[in-house]
Amino acid sequence: MSQVVEKTGKTVNEAVNLALDELNASPDNADIEVLDEGSKGLFGIGSKVARVRVSLRNVQSSLGEGFLTDVFSKMKISVDIETEEDEETILLKIKGKDSGIIIGRRGETLDALQYLTSLVVNKNREEYKRVTVDIENYRQKREETLVRLANRLAERVVRYRKNVTLEPMNPYERRIIHSSLQNNKMVETYSVGDEPNRKVVITIKQQAGYRS
Question: Can you give the CATH number for the domain in which 154 is found?
């Protein structure tokens, strides 16, 4: 996708709208330069078209937003996308009534969209930006659920002195489990299996003398 577009139109507004449509951008994410305001001429004689140059301001976030907009359009899903970007990360927050379809089982569809969006955003870029795609605050809610689960299962491991193996999880969710229990004095975690069926195991720490 081009980052800068020049367009002509009967009016400046028409030229700007044509450029924004081609860039799949909103006025908030673009810098607009009027190259020629054009003129109607006298009795239609000597009229000149307006010409503008429109540049994407946040190029990478606009690429991500544009990609998701195209995907959801093809899925016939109506959503709103809010973008937050800094020097290292891009957050694309989706709001829509069809959240269940977009999230998928255990967030698999959402993770796939995030992965593909990251590829689009970082293609041919020297500086990598971490991309997060979220919908209706799903990721925070899921993280809170996993943290509670990890602590509850850790207590069970300590009580019964028996390992607990969780259901298969994606790398993001496994990291949450590992991180939640990394400072626990009684248990430790490790992963077993191959993707996409890799699982986290919670076990008594060896130094505690209870590992089974």
Answer: 3.30.1370.50
SS (H, E, C) the chain: CCCEEEEEECCHHHHHHHHHHHHCCCHHHEEEEEEECCECCECCECCECEEEEEEECCHHHHHHHHHHHHHHHHCCCCEEEEEEECCCEEEEEEEECCHHHHHCHHHHHHHHHHHHHHHHHHCCCCCCCEEEEEECCHHHHHHHHHHHHHHHHHHHHHHHCCCEECCCCCHHHHHHHHHHHCCCCCEEEEEECCCCCCEEEEEECHHHCCCC
Nearest to 191 by CA among 207, 160, 170: 170
Domain shared by 64 and 38, yes or no: no
Domain end, chosen from 136, 170, 188, is at 136
pLDDT attached to residue 55: 80
What pLDDT is stored for residue 210 in this prediction? Answer: 43
Q: Examine the domain organization and report whether 37 and 68 are in the same domain.
A: no
CA 123 vs CA 68, 84, 154, 208: distances in Å: 15, 19, 41, 48
pTM > 0.85: no
Task: Quote the number of domains for the chain.
Answer: 3
Instruction: Give me the domain span that covers residue 32.
Output: 4-56
pLDDT of residue 127: 78
Model pLDDT for residues 5-57, shown as the tens digit of each residue? 899 988 899 999 998 888 877 787 778 899 988 877 665 566 788 899 988 76
